[in-house]
Specification:
Pfam families: C19orf12. The protein is an all-alpha fold. About 60% of the residues lie in helices and about 0% in strands. The radius of gyration is 13 Å and the shape is globular.
């Protein structure tokens, strides 16, 4: 998707077609299980306050990027 050039992951996500964004959303929500939340701010607070949930979201995101987009992920320093 990046044609050999680096793009930050948030930019790649924003550029995805809506059906791919929906698939990513579904994958991440599946990884989170049955959390009870009412809005994005509450969901963000729940995830950011729990290392296990952070790891689950990161794993779901990386899995999606590698499998669905066939992209290579590199970590910055």
């Amino acid at each position: 998707m990046t044609s050999g050039q680096f793009k930050p992951l948030p930019q790649i996500i924003l550029e995805l077609p809506s059906h791919q964004q929906q698939k990513l959303y579904s994958d991440i929500m599946s990884a989170l299980g049955t959390l009870d939340w009412t809005d994005l701010a509450q969901l963000t607070a729940l995830v950011m306050g729990n290392a296990t949930l952070q790891q689950q979201v990161a794993a779901a995101l990386l899995s999606y990027v590698k499998k669905e987009l066939r992209a290579e992920v590199r970590y910055g320093d």
